[in-house]
Amino acid sequence: MQPRPSRPGLLVAAPQSGSGKTLLTLALLRWARRRGLFVAPAKAGPDYIDPAFHAAAAGRASVNLDPYAMRPALVRDLAAADGLPLVVEGMMGLFDGAADGTGSAADLAEALGLPVLLVVDCAKQSHSVAALVRGFRDHRPGLRFCGLALNRIGSPRHEALLRAALEPLGLPVLAALLRQEALVLPERHLGLVQAGETAGLDAFLEAAADWFAEGADAAAFEALLGPASPTCPDRAAVARLAPLGARIAVARDEAFAFAYPHLLDGWQAGGAELSFFSPLADEGPDTAADAVFLPGGYPELHAGRIAAASGFRAGMEAARARGARIYGECGGYMVLGEALEDAERQRHPMLGFLPLVTSFAQRRLHLGYRRLRPRPGGPWGEPLVGHEFHYSTAVWEGEAERLFEARDALGADLGAVGLRRGQVAGSYLHVVDLA
After folding, report:
1. Which residue spans within 168-277 are E strands per DSSP?
2. Mean pLDDT over residues 269-290, rounded?
């Protein structure tokens, strides 16, 4: 991506994961909302969970902006956000991206013309912070920094030492945030517990905004989150992934929550009508649907309920019988299989549409971007980009057509992945965009 002219907003980044980016982003979004500042939240990279927290904090839907898996035109279109100032939460460390070194939060900041707010975990350092910050400031000439957020400060004396060490660097300290052990969100194997499952979330966000307000330079952040642009930037017609059908039924609940909004919005823009149903509530897809999408999520945590959902099973069998295209990603793929083994090694029968048995008891991390060449007969024919992030394992696969030919971000051949039988198809991969 080519650098863009600067625009109101900022990108929240850090030297590494675990520095406090998510907490600070949520606190900033709720603080801005309380002060009547209208901003558009976004998440860099492939993440289904954090955007829902952003939406709860900001009162506005958050979008994913993935500089590796999305075409530059799509990133710009999604980032236009009606001209509102952007608050983008980065992923991992500032310069971390795909295995080939591209697609980092720094790449996204440069492409969108956003300055970086560097969040530094200061819990176990004092004067050494200057060397760390100097390295990040100077690592990529041309990358703009609006300032620093010093996190997990232990005391006023600790803050004074940090400020003294950093003063010669000329980067302003925009927030000095005291260590706050109470501001912790619960986690599970794929990240935070989902926003809809987090009890007392609004009270948490209010407390986070109070914490932020105590240590932040309010005038500086108000200047960064200035008024919306008079014209909406970079809006253009961008080709999107073709809809699965004319009437698409989408599974949506705590077990099937990982669907990218930009894909669903693109399908609607392409003329498709969307409906939603909850397998956990024992609902089947709309009987008029000519396509069914089972997105990823946490079927391994709800395998017993899914197996017992007779109405869901009957509705899915009816959809298959009438020739609807049925597509599952990751967790949805697991549910299309014959059985799912949970963490306690209990085997639960799934839909049995594909010859597949998966196990969450045999856990192994599968993670990375993928470049995909669809095989004939699947939902799409064009080259695609996606990603993989799961701990479950396919312990048995039977005879079926394969869905994609896959390569990783370094170009290594991963072979044929996914399964297809007739109009039913799926894989562990999350498709993000056209290549």
Report:
1. 173-178, 187-188, 191-192, 247-251, 273-277
2. 98
CATH code for residues 9-224: 3.40.50.300
User: Among residues 122, 146, 232, 330, which one is catalytic?
Assistant: 330
CA nearest to 403, candidates 430, 421, 388? 421
**Mean pLDDT, range 237-246, rounded to an integer:** 94
DSSP 176-207: EEE--TT----EETTEEPPGGG-TTHHHHHHH
277 contacts 286 by C-beta, under 8 angstroms: yes
Q: Which of 301, 273, 231, 258 is nearest to 429 (CA)?
A: 258
User: Look-up: residue for tokens 């863009």?
Assistant: 4
Angle at 313 between CA 310 and CA 317, to 5 degrees: 140
Please say if the pLDDT value at position 83 is more than 60.
Answer: yes
Is the CA virtual torsion 289, 292, 293, 298 positive or negative? positive
Domain 9-224 matches domain 247-434 at the CATH topology level: yes
Average model confidence (pLDDT) for the chain? 95
Are 212 and 175 in contact by the 8 Å Cβ rule? The answer is yes
The CATH number of domain 247-434, selected from 3.40.50.880, 1.10.10.60, 3.20.20.70, 3.30.70.60 = 3.40.50.880
Q: Please report the beta strands in 209-299, taking only residues with DSSP state E, as ranges in sequence order.
A: 247-251, 273-277, 291-294
Residue 7 reports pLDDT greater than 90? no
Q: pTM to 2 decimals? A: 0.94
- Establish whether 330 is a catalytic residue: yes
pLDDT at 24: 98
Least confident residue range of 72-86, 317-331, 392-406: 72-86
Host H or E run for residue 311: helix 310-321
